[in-house]
Inverse folding.
């Protein structure tokens, strides 16, 4: 009877370095939104590089803010991800949707046009889209509700869904930034 041989898994030094990484996440698009359970992109990158090949599928069943998906895409892997959180799904989808040069120009023109407009009087009672009202409106001050309703209305006028998603992600990021300064 032959003894069964076992293979040893060799952990590359780059993976160990990435596991110990303590640097802040500042790379774009990872820095667009600070998802609560995020980790260093270098960690995902090195794990993917070590344990998969270009063209292979990387599955992330708890994709959160999409760090693993982004890193896998940048390394030439096919990706699929899912999450129970609607916020996580939105963030991951927006961050992994490529923006063309034409999209960028359209978003810049939209930003310039919106910057020339005045938001509504923040004492007015603004309205969010129907599916968001029940959950969010009861917790928003009137001035914030009016501004967000105005901004969402402007975003909805954009031509392409990927432009709308990217702009919503930026609005979300600005909101997060504002909350951190309170």
């Amino acid at each position: 009877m032959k003894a069964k041989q076992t293979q040893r898994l060799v952990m590359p030094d780059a993976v160990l370095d990435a596991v110990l990484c303590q640097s802040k996440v500042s790379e774009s698009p990872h820095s667009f939104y600070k998802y609560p359970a995020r980790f260093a992109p270098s960690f995902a990158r090195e794990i993917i590089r070590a344990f998969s090949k270009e063209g292979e599928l990387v599955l992330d069943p708890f994709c959160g803010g999409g760090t693993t998906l982004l890193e896998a895409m940048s390394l030439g892997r096919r990706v699929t991800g899912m999450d129970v959180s609607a916020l996580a799904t939105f963030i991951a989808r927006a961050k992994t949707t490529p923006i063309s040069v034409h999209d960028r120009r359209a978003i810049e023109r939209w930003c310039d046009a919106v910057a020339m407009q005045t938001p509504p009087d923040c004492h007015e009672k603004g309205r969010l889209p129907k599916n968001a009202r029940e959950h969010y409106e009861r917790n928003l001050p009137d001035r914030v509700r009016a501004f967000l309703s105005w901004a969402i209305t402007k975003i909805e006028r954009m031509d392409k869904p990927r432009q709308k998603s990217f702009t919503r992600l930026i609005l979300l990021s600005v909101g997060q930034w504002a909350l951190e300064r309170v």
